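Renewal narrative, Specific Aim 1. Our central claim is that a sequence can be written position by position from structural information alone. The example that follows is taken directly from our test logs and has not been curated for this report. It begins with the structure tokens describing the chain, in the order in which they were read.
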């Protein structure tokens, strides 16, 4: 009576004991498919006699161990068991809660605790940097000028890291756009909401804007050269510029918050470099760039210049997708 029963089982056991037919199984008259979905973690407590078949063939035991669910799903309603979609039963929100807490703490610090002794001077500096104030003979600090313009390049770097391979159910582009104005303070909510794995990008999408620009070596090269020039400009300034900048950092809210923004963007960049590297399946060849990505701005920019194109690694071709379509 069990010849009409198909039991495809997926697990990590080297061998699986023989399942003895139960009385309920012997009374089955229609073919039934059962798919056992199990995580990679070894489960010594899971035994064959714990698998149950209900009258409607949908009731299975849900095994739980330390909050991790191991679910047995029926594939009766799916004509192709190999294409059964496995949905997450839950999500660990610990990192999201911590990132939201960090975001809230940063906002509270910036608005309430950051030094704010020179608000008039901050407004003057902002007008000078935005070219809203003419030449009045005042020499701007070169470190401050370099920091200001390199903060406009950081969103380009994060756009090249997040939009192709750091996408999620939550759209990334609004956060990237706002990061041109808010820096890491606009990106942190997306970091908290990000839930891997990222959806794949087709070759047709890679040929369209903005992916064709973000995947371009020209964009990566221009970003790296511009950032290197700004850093050299800041470093070759007068000897007193660093002492003056440190004094600004202690008194000015504008410079204090901007400097903190730069440090946080540099701290989060290596993680997204690693995520992009693994998504492109380039970790074995490009792992040496991970410690390099710790170098503020220059490390991630160098990775963007050397990384392989996404179309050469993971993006499915449109022709192969159309040939695999059974309707054609």
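The sequence written for that structure reads:
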């Amino acid at each position: 009576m069990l010849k009409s029963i198909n039991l495809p089982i997926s697990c990590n056991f080297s061998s699986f004991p023989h399942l003895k037919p139960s009385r309920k199984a012997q009374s089955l008259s229609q073919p039934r498919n059962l798919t056992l979905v199990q995580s990679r973690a070894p489960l010594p407590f899971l035994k064959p006699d714990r698998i149950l078949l209900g009258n409607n063939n949908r009731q299975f035991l849900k095994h739980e161990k330390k909050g991790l669910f191991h679910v047995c799903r029926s594939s009766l309603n799916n004509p192709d068991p190999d294409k059964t979609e496995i949905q997450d039963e839950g999500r660990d929100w610990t990192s999201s809660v911590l990132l939201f807490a960090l975001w809230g703490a940063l906002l509270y610090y910036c608005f309430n605790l950051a030094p704010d002794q020179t608000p008039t001077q901050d407004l003057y500096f902002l007008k000078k940097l935005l070219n809203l104030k003419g030449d009045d003979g005042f020499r701007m600090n070169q470190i401050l000028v370099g920091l200001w313009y390199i903060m406009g390049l950081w969103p380009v770097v994060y756009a090249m890291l997040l939009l192709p391979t750091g996408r999620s159910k939550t759209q990334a582009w609004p956060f990237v756009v706002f990061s041109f104005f808010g820096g890491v303070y606009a990106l942190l909510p997306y970091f908290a909401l990000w839930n891997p794995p990222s959806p794949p990008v087709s070759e047709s999408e890679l040929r369209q804007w903005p992916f064709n620009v973000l995947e371009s070596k020209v964009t990566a090269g221009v970003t790296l050269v511009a950032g290197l020039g700004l850093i050299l400009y800041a470093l070759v300034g007068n000897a007193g510029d660093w002492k003056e900048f440190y004094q600004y950092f202690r008194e000015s809210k504008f410079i204090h918050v901007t400097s903190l923004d730069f440090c946080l963007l540099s701290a989060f960049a290596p993680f997204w470099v690693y995520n992009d590297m693994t998504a492109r399946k380039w970790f074995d060849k490009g792992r040496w760039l991970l410690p390099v990505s710790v170098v503020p701005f220059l490390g991630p920019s160098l990775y963007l210049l050397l990384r392989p194109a996404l179309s050469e690694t993971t993006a499915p071709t449109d022709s192969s997708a159309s040939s695999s379509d059974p309707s054609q």
